[in-house]
Amino acid sequence: MVEEEHHTESTCGSFPQTPHSTRELFDALPPLPGLRVELIEGKMIVSPMGSPKHTWTAVFLHNALLPLSLERGWLGAPGGLDVCIEGPRDTLAPDYVLTHPECPLWGHELRSSGVFMVAEVVSPSSVRIDHEEKVRLYALGKVPIYLLIDPISKTPNVTVFSDIKDDTYRTIVKVDMGTAIKLPAPVDFELDTSIFKV
After folding, report:
1. Nearest CA to 122 among 149, 156, 82?
2. What are the φ and ψ backbone dihedral angles of 153, each rounded to 5 degrees?
3. pTM beyond 0.90, yes or no
4. What is the pLDDT of residues 125-171, one digit of tens each?
5. Per-residue b/e over 134-161, b at no fewer than 16 CB within 10 Å?
6. Domains and CATH numbers, the chain
7. What phi and psi, each to the nearest 5 degrees, are found at residue 71?
């Protein structure tokens, strides 16, 4: 008679470690084409990428700032880059980012302290987040300028948040879309918002 030996081996080592926080789950996600994934105040927000009109609005902003970016050696990108808010380590995916080439990173994310400006284009699903939560988070992350483009408001408008003190934007300038608005230092640029009226 032949005795069989049975070895029971734990298979725990063959599975990836289970994330223990929303941040760990976020970090473990593979790329999700066509989706925007953000980590806001401990909640993971997954939403579809914006409509073509939404995307074109960010591209129009990029095109308007491109000569300035090239002149100063800065980098601007319409979408596709994540910004890590230093402190809480929340991750936001703005519609536009303006930074310098040596912006510090947190993994694959831009650290908020190295970003000059972010812009968000409001969509029906992002009204509250863009107008409330992101205003607070970008100020907390020390992003000098937050440009909010709201084409879906009853009166389409553009707002510039700047001048951070005590983790809050102290200066808020809002104009109807089609009116010029000043992007303060460090950008220091007069933006003709009629470019967003398509």
Report:
1. 149
2. -65, 160
3. no
4. 899 999 999 999 999 999 999 999 999 999 999 999 999 999 999 99
5. bbebbbbbbbbbbbbbbbeeeebbbbbb
6. 51-196 (3.90.1570.10)
7. -60, -40
